[in-house]
Amino acid sequence: MVRQGSSGTHGAGPRPSAKAKTSGSAARKPVSPVYRRRRLFAGAILLLVLALAVGGFAAISGSINGAPPAATDGESPQQELPGSTSAPSQSAGPTASATVSPSPSTGCDEKLLTVSAATDKAAYSPGENPLLTLKVTNGNRVPCEVNIGTSQMEYLVTSGTDRIFSSKDCQADNTDLVKTIAPGQSESANFPWDRKRSVQGCAAVAAKPAVGTYVVTARLGSKTSAKAVFQLG
Question: CATH no. for residue 174?
Fold first, then answer.
């Protein structure tokens, strides 16, 4: 005997309801775009903080180790070697010569200019005129300009305390003559004395020098020579 209504449900088990099928889908909600943007922003902030922390640590480490600062604009840092000095900058102007010859009178010390007097002979026979000589020598290491004109020089002849002759007494010529004297070199000037006496103002003197010993001194500016002795016969 067949039971009514049993053929459609026998052996198939209970069927899930429509409500049971959609319960899993309702549990997972879709991610909101605003929430996604917040997560990305938070991640970017975290990366920035980490980058700053790493950069600060590298800078502090470089300062402690004495490392030179990083170059900018593609330039490599320049390091100065211990004990070295920076070379001075050179101007674009003309360079001076390595050696410069001193010009006359540059660095010339007047104290190193010496004047000496001499005669061409030690003794003269009667009627023989002596030749008086003035010599100036440059003892400097540089050339010197010296005025050896008649305006600066004088020949003075004496005998004991007696003033016999001076080239200044009757000097008609009073000129300057500047010459450059090299280091260690000399310039000389000669004066022929006619064995006559003279006085200041060039007045005539009848007396003549007697036979005996005479002394000549030469003066150039403020320089006076030592005495040079000679004999008149």
Answer: 2.60.40.10
Residue 2 β-bridge partners: none
**CB contact at 8 A, 123 and 231:** yes
For 119-158, the pLDDT digits (tens) are 999 999 999 999 999 999 999 999 999 999 999 999 999 9
Let me know if residue 218 belongs to a domain: yes
- Domain of residue 210 covers 110-232
Cβ 165 vs Cβ 198: under 8 Å: yes
**143 close to 104: Cβ distance less than 8 angstroms:** yes
Flag whether 11 is in a domain: no
Give the model confidence (pLDDT) of 47-77 as tens digits: 776 666 656 545 444 444 544 444 444 444 4
Element housing 186 (H / E): strand 186-192
Number of domains in the chain: 1
Q: Is residue 74 part of a domain?
A: no
DSSP state of 74: T
Residue 177 burial (C-beta neighbours within 10 Å; 0-12, 13-18, 19+): middle
Does 81 map to a domain? no
CA distance 154 to 143: 24
Task: Find the helix or strand (DSSP H, E) in which 163 lies.
Answer: strand 162-166
**Positive or negative CA dihedral for 197, 201, 204, 206?**
negative
**Strand partners for 229:** 215
Are 138 and 110 in contact by the 8 Å Cβ rule? The answer is no
State how far the Cα of 18 lies from the Cα of 87, in Å rounded to an integer. Answer: 93
